Amino acid sequence: MELTKRPRRLRGTDTIRRLCRETRLSPDSLIYPLFVDETLSGRRPIPSLPGQYHYGLDALPQAVEECLQAGVNSCLLFGLPKEKDPLGSSAWAENGVIQQAIRQIKQHDPDFYVVTDVCLCEYTDHGHCGALRGREVDNDPTLELLARTALSHAQAGADLVAPSDMMDGRVAAIRQTLDQAGFESLPILSYSAKYASAFYGPFRAAAGSAPSFGDRRGYQMDPHNRNEALKECALDVEEGADLLMVKPALAYLDVIREVSQAFPLPLAAYSVSGEYAMIKAAGQAGLIDEHRVMCESALSIFRAGADILITYFAKELAQAIRSGEIG
Ligand code: PBG
């Protein structure tokens, strides 16, 4: 057969390139993480995450408006409580920071979609994600605390609860507690494949949730493993998870790919604080084009198979999608 001289790749105008894009992005797929500080009034820049803020409860309407203006209509809430204790009891307090934040947001705009991170590490004085027995997190007693926390979020008006603690059996425990309280239709987004990652550094500084001793390798996943992620996801599906998550995103694109192909549930990817901070820092140093690297990174995560992206760049990405630059 004679080879034609036709170019291999589609040439022509932007229109044909847009027609043939294999990956489509929408602002509807983006979730913006929001840090709420119970002791704060107004908002204050987060040193470890340039461009991000801690919001006081009174500043949440402004935060919501900024999201909506950019085209982002959902957030993931993290709380910085006034007080911490060994069990993390302010995580499930009726007037805890997250419970108040949910009510505040819903009062401002009932349609703004509120996802809550369900974990204890921001609320325990030792910074681990559960109750301790000696120097280890005690899995089973922690389940009840997590279920209580998720229920309190539901009662305050959360739309979706997202357990990030990685205790065994927490999805089932939360599902059962929610169902018994009449929240059968409230979905669970499980942080199913959450790796013990160095990319969480800036978040822990921002959320004050670094463990005071040891690390989280006892309950988070080993970065060497891929099959283990599939096993974690399968168990979460069995326990009743409605959506799955892989976290971090950029260093785990292979895991996103496999999980997206193996399970017919919506898949979220969390592009975490260290990923954001690296792009920001390199951009600020003039080493890369921050905006373009942000766009290309987000594309790679969707191309790998994610349906939803949780990212500190949500507002900038939504604008890039709206302007037609990507998407
Ligand atoms: C809570 C939690 C963490 C993140 C999300 N939920 C920190 C951790 O596991 O240490 C990290 C998010 C980020 O780095 O942006 N367990």
List key phrases describing it.
alpha/beta; EC 4.2.1.24; 327 residues; two-stranded antiparallel ribbon; lyase; 17% strand; binds ligand PBG
How would you characterize the overall build of this protein?
GO terms for molecular function: porphobilinogen synthase activity; zinc ion binding. It catalyses: 2 5-aminolevulinate = porphobilinogen + 2 H2O + H(+). Belongs to the ALAD family. By secondary structure, this protein is an alpha/beta fold. Helices cover 38% and strands 17% of the residues. It has eleven helices and twelve strands. The strands form two sheets. Strands 1, 2, 3, 4, 5, 8, 9, 10, 11 and 12 form a ten-stranded mixed sheet that branches. A two-stranded antiparallel sheet has the order 6-7. Helix 3 packs parallel to helix 4 (139-156), helix 4 crosses helix 5 and helix 9 (273-284) runs antiparallel to helix 10. It is globular, with a radius of gyration of 20 Å. The model has no long low-confidence stretch (mean pLDDT 96).
Termini separation comes to 38 Å
Biggest beta sheet summary: 10 strands, mixed
Query: What is the radius of gyration computed over CA atoms, rounded to a whole number of angstroms?
Result: 20 Å
Fraction of helical residues = 25-40%
What best-fitting shape do the alpha-carbon axes yield?
A: globular
Strand content: 15-25%
Protein name: Delta-aminolevulinic acid dehydratase
Cofactor: Zn(2+)
Organism: Candidatus Acutalibacter pullistercoris
Subunit structure: Homooctamer.
